[in-house]
Amino acid sequence: MPLQFPSVSGAGALGPIAAPTPAQHAAPASGPGDTEFGSLVLDGLDRLEGLTDKADGLAVQAATGKLENIHDYTIAASEASVASQLTVSLRNRAVEAFNEIMRMQV
Questions:
Q1: What angle (nearest 5°) sits at the alpha carbon of residue 19, between those of residues 58 and 37?
Q2: Please, is 14 exposed, middle or buried when counting C-beta atoms within 10 Å of its C-beta (0-12, 13-18, 19+)?
Q3: Could you mention a single GO BP entry for this protein (predicted)?
Q4: Which one of 40, 41, 87, 89 has the fewest CB atoms closer than 10 angstroms to its CB?
Q5: CA distance 79 to 9
Q6: Which residues contact 78 (CB under 8 A, 6 or more apart)?
Q7: Which residues pair with 17 in a beta bridge?
Q8: Percent helix, strand and coil across the chain, each rounded to 5?
Q9: Half-sphere exposure of residue 15: CA atoms within 13 angstroms, side-chain side
Q10: d(CA 25, CA 66)
């Protein structure tokens, strides 16, 4: 069952998150779970890039006066900001977990 995240704009920007097939992202697999995790990370980064690209495009339209509804840009910028903060937070947690594992006595 894919995870559902609420969307700020109601357009389903984050939408359901499901593991892509291994053919979508070719990654070297060390074990059965490695390919799925790597694919999820790549998919998340692709979604983040899409959100920031959308916000950047709307920012250009707003600056040139071609954007009729400025709230569309505000919503897209907020979505991109929250997604970036979440990505940085997850990265920091992963680094902390890796460092903790490296400090373990063997």
A1: 100
A2: buried
A3: bacterial-type flagellum-dependent cell motility
A4: 89
A5: 8
A6: 8
A7: 3
A8: 65, 5, 35
A9: 11
A10: 37
* Stated pTM of the model: 0.62
Beta-bridge partner residues of 4? 16
pLDDT in tens, 46-100: 999 999 999 999 999 999 999 999 999 999 999 999 999 999 999 999 999 999 9
Angle, to 10 degrees, between the axis of helix 32-64 and the axis of helix 70-103? 150
Determine contact, residues 70/53, Cβ cutoff 8 Å. Answer: no
- How far is 91 from 98, CA to CA, in rounded Å? 11
Distance, CA of 11 to CA of 55 (rounded, Å): 14
**42 vs 10, 46, 62, CA distance in Å?**
24, 6, 30
